[in-house]
C-alpha cells in the first residue's frame, strides 16, 4: 500500500529481471517475441498519479529493452570509478529533454490491471499528500515464468 498522506512512494525504476549475458537476454523471449516472464499488476484500490500509479518507458523508447543494460548497474563499491562511465537504464532511456515525453503513466481503477514483461522499465510515483482524493493505493502483483526461465 502507498499512502500519499504519509508521503510514501512506489518502488524506484527497475526491470523485473536482468539476464546476465546477451544470449540469456535473447533466450528470455520465445522465438515469436513473447516474453518468458510476465508480471500481472492488479489495482485493488484506484491507482492514480495522485496516489502512485505505475509509470513505464515503452519498449520502442527503451534502448536497454532488447539490448540489455550496462553491467555497472550492479557495480560494487570497488568498481565505482569504472561504474561512473556507465548510464543507469533510466538515464539511458531519457537521454534528451524530449525523451521525457515517452514516459507513460498507467492509472488503473480498482480491479483493473496491467500485464507487462520482465524487460519493461517501470516504477511507482510518490503520492501527493495535498490531493483532494488521496486514498492509499493498494495493489497486488503475480508473476509467471516459463519453466526453466531462471534454472
Can you give a write-up of this model?
The protein has 151 residues and is of the alpha+beta class. It contains 4 helices and 6 strands; from the N terminus they run αββαααββββ. The chain has a 3-stranded antiparallel β-sheet with strand order 4-1-6, with no helix packed on it. Strands 3-2-5 form a 3-stranded antiparallel β-sheet. The longest helix is centred in the N-terminal third of the chain and has 6 residues, at 22-27. The model has no long low-confidence stretch (mean pLDDT 87).
Mean pLDDT across residues: 87
- Sketch the topology as an H/E string, one letter per element: HEEHHHEEEE
Helix content: 10-25%
**Largest sheet properties:** 3 strands, antiparallel
- Low-confidence segments, ≥5 residues, pLDDT <50? none
Rg, rounded, reads: 17 Å
Question: What's the count of strands?
Answer: 6
Ends: how far apart? 32 Å
Number of helical segments? 4
- In one word, what is the shape? globular
Q: Largest beta sheet: what is the strand line-up?
A: 4-1-6
Which class do the helix and strand fractions yield?
alpha+beta
Share of residues in strands: 15-25%
Amino acid at each position: 500500500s502507498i499512502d500519499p498522506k504519509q508521503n510514501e512512494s512506489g518502488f524506484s525504476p527497475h526491470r523485473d529481471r536482468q539476464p546476465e549475458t546477451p544470449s540469456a537476454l535473447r533466450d528470455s523471449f520465445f522465438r515469436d517475441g513473447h516474453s518468458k516472464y510476465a508480471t500481472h499488476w492488479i489495482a485493488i484500490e484506484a491507482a492514480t498519479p495522485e496516489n502512485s500509479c505505475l509509470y513505464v518507458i515503452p519498449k520502442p523508447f527503451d534502448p536497454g529493452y532488447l539490448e540489455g543494460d550496462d553491467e555497472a548497474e550492479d557495480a560494487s563499491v570497488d568498481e565505482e570509478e569504472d561504474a561512473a562511465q556507465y548510464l543507469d537504464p533510466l538515464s539511458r532511456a531519457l537521454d534528451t529533454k524530449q525523451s521525457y515525453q515517452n514516459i507513460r503513466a498507467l492509472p488503473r481503477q480498482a480491479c483493473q490491471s496491467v500485464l507487462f514483461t520482465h524487460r519493461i522499465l517501470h516504477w511507482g510515483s510518490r503520492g501527493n499528500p495535498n490531493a483532494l482524493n488521496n486514498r492509499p493505493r493498494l495493489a497486488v502483483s503475480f508473476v509467471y515464468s516459463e519453466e526453466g526461465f531462471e534454472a
